[in-house]
Each structure stands twice: as C-alpha cells, then as structure tokens.
Amino acid sequence: MELDLNADLGEGAGFDVDLMPLITSANVCCGLHAGSPTEIAATLELAKMYGVVVGAHPGYADRANFGRVEYDLPDKDIAAAVLFQLAAIDALANTIGLRVKYVKPHGALYNQACRDRRLADAIIGAALRFQLPVVGLPGSQLEAACRDRLPFVAEGFADRRYRADGSLVSRNEPNAFVHDPDEAVKQVEWLIREKGIRTVCVHGDNPDAVAFAKAVREALLLKGVTLKPFTG
User: Fold this and answer.
1) What residues contact 29, with CB distance under 8 A and at least 6 apart?
2) Model confidence pLDDT, tens digit, residues 125-134
3) Whole-model pTM?
4) Which of the chain's ends, N or C, has fewer CB atoms near its CB within 10 Å?
C-alpha cells in the first residue's frame, strides 16, 4: 500500500524544519492567508533539501483569521486570487529549480470549494492555467469540477474528525480533532479502504504537529504502508 503524507507549511507556525523530513509532499502557503516571502522561500529551500514534492496552498487574503473564515466572493475574485497565488509560488519555486506539482486550497476556501461547485469551478479555472492536479475531499464538488479537466487527488485528514457525509467536523465544534496517533492511523486505514484517498494531511500549525506527525508516520510504516509522493 502506498500513501502520500502531506503538511501545510510556510505559514509561520515554526515547525517546518522538523516536519519537512517526516512528509513526502508540502502544501506551501502562497502568502495571503499567512507567511511571508522570506518564510515561504525558506520552506521551499527545505523542500528541495529533503526531496519533498511542493504544492501550492492558496487561501483567502485574511491573515487575521488565518484564512479560516468563509467569504461570499464573486467567481472572478476567487479565480484572480488563486491565480495570483499560484503565479507567486511558481515564480519563487522556479528560482531554486523546483516545480510546483499540485494545488491544494487552504482552510475556508478548501471547505467551501468542496461543497460549492461555483467556487470549485473558479479554483479549477486558475489551476488549469498551470495544468496542475488539485487535491480535495473525495466525492466533493472539487472532484466533480476536475472531471475531464484536471487530475484530482483524493485527500484524507489524520487529525480531523469526519461527519457521516464525508465532510469535516467544523473546528468550532467540540471533538473536531483527533489527538491519539493510534486513532489517527485507524482513521487513515478507513479513508484508504472506503474513500480511496491517495494523500493524508497532518496540519502544520498544530502545537503538537511534530510529535503527532512522527507517531502517525511510524505507525503507518509499521502497518507496511510505503510513504511516497502521489506525483513525481
């Protein structure tokens, strides 16, 4: 069994140096919801050093809320914001000989696009300009919007709990997070078996992110899972 292990990095959380050796793909912040050009450039350098695949992680321009508050914006504004962020991270990566290999929206933009086809289409329109695969929840509107247009990569979360419909429990609700690595691995096994995921996320801004990522990684390896990027 093969699985990609990803984390959201370049957001100024302070754990990138410790997380990078543990993962196979890095969703690198594009500078609007968090991070700075210096932090993002440093994250890209780390990814190059460890041979970690890089993806763009665009979000709402809302640093006060870390891109985790939903907005109702026109399609053209969503598409322009995503395109702007993809162009920025692509340019930074190119300066050190890296290629951005995929797109994974951040936070509220991710959750909205997974359930709202209008937002999904706006994001896919931007991703098409770079011909990049898109990461999202299986069975989501993001997956539907990719059909016959771009490759879609089904993602699961090791540290978040799920609703019966396959969406994530809101961060504002009790019991939204998984803290026990053993429970996380059981959830990942279920996501692989029932949802066909190809990549699993461990959030990089969690205060316990490094310990959690280490435990999940070790448990997956003990289960015989091969950790490798979903894209070369």
Assistant:
1) 8, 9, 10, 11, 12, 35, 39, 40, 43, 57, 59, 106
2) 999 999 999 9
3) 0.95
4) C
